[in-house]
């Protein structure tokens, strides 16, 4: 890198791991003969990063990195782990079983950056950044509280404008939305299958919510599905917006 007309030389491992999940991650050194034998190499806190030591990258004949979650076990026990081949793989969906019996779903995305060879000015090598994300990110853009049921197994609550990172669901999940109170009515949506592609350029799903006591009365909302590093970024909002560009206080009836 060149900074202020000076060359800045950074010596680092060729593999860097970013933890963009909701829980601390553990880098493991797994015994090549007995996978039940392992050592904790490092803990990566939420929104933190870690350069994987060179010797760990070449421990095995293949090139896997072993990753688990830190569930604050005093005995250091690991319940489950997954591997990612930093040389051959570019994208992967991974699951981890937690001590609670639930599963955590992650997206591992690899980004390749050119790097200099030793003692040369040639950009003929590569460094690798591994981004680990929850499979789903959900943002509530409505001005009211909502709830989201994931695969009829877990329900999360979202305040207006709140973003929630979801590991309990994946890109094939089915979601059901609930508005606990709008006009003093509880509204419950039909199921939305994320495995089915939405409409239009923005991959939008029409979400129909029914009055819990009079199902023929409905509300129409939109669930937009964007992707970043192949994880799903979900936006839940009304199809109609009103912007007040005047200097007056307006009331909508």
Automatic annotation (TrEMBL):
<comment type="similarity">
    <text>Belongs to the VPS13 family.</text>
</comment>
<dbReference type="GO" id="GO:0006623">
    <property type="term" value="P:protein targeting to vacuole"/>
</dbReference>
<dbReference type="InterPro" id="IPR009543">
    <property type="entry name" value="VPS13_VAB"/>
</dbReference>
<dbReference type="Pfam" id="PF25036">
    <property type="entry name" value="VPS13_VAB"/>
</dbReference>
<feature type="domain" description="Vacuolar protein sorting-associated protein 13 VPS13 adaptor binding">
    <location>
        <begin position="6"/>
        <end position="253"/>
    </location>
</feature>
<protein>
    <recommendedName>
        <fullName>Vacuolar protein sorting-associated protein 13 VPS13 adaptor binding domain-containing protein</fullName>
    </recommendedName>
</protein>
<dbReference type="GO" id="GO:0045053">
    <property type="term" value="P:protein retention in Golgi apparatus"/>
</dbReference>
<dbReference type="InterPro" id="IPR026847">
    <property type="entry name" value="VPS13"/>
</dbReference>
């Amino acid at each position: 890198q060149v900074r202020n007309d000076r060359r800045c030389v950074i010596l680092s491992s060729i593999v860097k791991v970013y933890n963009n999940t909701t829980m601390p991650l553990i880098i493991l050194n797994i015994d090549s003969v007995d996978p039940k034998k392992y050592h904790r190499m490092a803990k990566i806190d939420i929104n933190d990063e870690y350069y994987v030591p060179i010797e760990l990258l070449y421990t095995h004949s293949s090139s896997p990195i072993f990753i688990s979650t830190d569930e604050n076990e005093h005995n250091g026990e690991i319940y489950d782990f997954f591997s990612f081949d930093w040389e051959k793989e570019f994208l992967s969906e991974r699951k981890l079983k937690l001590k609670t019996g639930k599963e955590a779903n992650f997206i591992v995305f690899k980004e390749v950056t050119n790097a200099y060879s030793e003692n040369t000015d040639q950009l003929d090598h590569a460094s690798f950044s591994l981004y680990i994300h929850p499979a789903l990110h959900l943002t509530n853009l409505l001005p009211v509280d909502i709830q989201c049921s994931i695969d009829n197994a877990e329900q999360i609550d979202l305040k207006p404008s709140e973003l929630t990172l979801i590991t309990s669901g994946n890109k094939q999940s089915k979601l059901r939305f609930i508005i606990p109170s709008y006009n003093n009515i509880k509204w419950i949506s039909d199921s939305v299958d994320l495995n089915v592609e939405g409409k239009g350029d923005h991959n939008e799903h029409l979400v129909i919510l029914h009055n819990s006591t009079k199902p023929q009365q409905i509300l129409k909302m939109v669930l937009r599905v964007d992707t970043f590093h192949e994880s799903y970024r979900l936006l839940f909002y009304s199809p109609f917006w009103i912007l007040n560009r005047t200097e007056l206080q307006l009331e909508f009836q």
